[in-house]
Every structure is written in C-alpha cells, then in structure tokens.
Specification:
The two termini are 27 Å apart. 15% of the residues are buried. Helix 2 crosses helix 3. This protein has a five-stranded mixed sheet, with helices on both faces. Strand 3 and strand 4 form a beta hairpin. The protein has a domain of 95 residues. The chain contains four helices and five strands; from the N terminus they run ββαββαααβ. The mean pLDDT is 86. The protein is of the alpha+beta class.
C-alpha cells in the first residue's frame, strides 16, 4: 500500500491535462524553462490528487485540493502570483493555530484570507467525478 500524488490542469472547456510532478517542480524552480502556449495569458484551474495504491494500482482518492495557476502572455508560469497565494495560505494556517480570542469591536486584517481564497476553486459534481476518474487511471488525458 502507498500514496501517489497526481496533478491536473483544466482549461476553459474543462479539458483535463496531466501535469507530471517533475514538470511542476521544474516550473517552480525555473518558470522560463517550460512554456505552455495553450495557457498563455490565462489563469487555469489546477488540482492535486492523492490516491491510495495497492500493488501499484490506484484504488481510491484520499485527498484533493483545488487552486489556480497563472500564465503570462508568453505562456510562462507566473511564479510571483503562485508564491503570493502559497504564502497567504501558510500565514493564514499559522494565524489560526496561534489566534487568541479578542474583544468585541476589534478590526481584523483579512488580507491573507482574501488572497488565499482567491487561489482556490470548487468543481461541479460531474467535474469532480471526471478528476477522480482521471486520477484513478480510468480516463485518459493529455500529458503536458
């Protein structure tokens, strides 16, 4: 038994593309090393899916997250926007674990909450089923 993480990108028409983990690591290290002309000038939906494996075969989805990736007009990954959202998510998580109850009438800085929320999306039920099926190897999708 084991866990495998799979990444997918969805285009405007809900076309599903498999993004290999190594390719995603590469664009995080050097965004100019990979150009995705089909996503030029867009903000696309991305999903990370963890699947449970038995005998190297995926049997069920155990965890899934949804976020956005932005690409510049030339088709290069916008690392600055991604980094800003990731930092906001981390700071928000840390703030929740260290938060102390405050009195009434207090003004709270919600900047990180809005930045983090702007980086997430929720799929429709049919789209969720398509993503699950792709993660489990039941649906073929184009590899980037």
């Amino acid at each position: 038994m084991g866990i495998s993480c799979r990444m997918f990108i969805l285009d405007k028409e809900d076309g599903l593309y498999r993004l290999p983990n190594a390719k995603f690591d590469q664009i995080l290290r050097d965004p100019t090393s990979c150009r995705f002309t089909r996503f030029a000038g867009t903000r696309v939906r991305m999903t990370d899916v963890a699947v449970e494996l038995i005998d190297r075969q995926p049997i069920r989805v155990v965890w899934i997250t949804f976020r956005f990736l932005a690409f510049d007009d030339d088709g290069y990954f916008d690392l600055t926007a991604f980094d800003r959202q990731q930092r906001a998510r981390a700071e928000l998580a840390m703030a929740l674990t260290t938060a102390e109850p405050k009195g009434e009438g207090m003004v709270v800085d919600a900047t990180n909450r809005f930045v983090a929320q702007g980086g997430r999306w929720t799929p429709s039920r049919p789209l969720q089923r398509l993503i699950d099926a792709a993660a489990l190897g039941r649906v073929k999708c184009t590899r980037l």
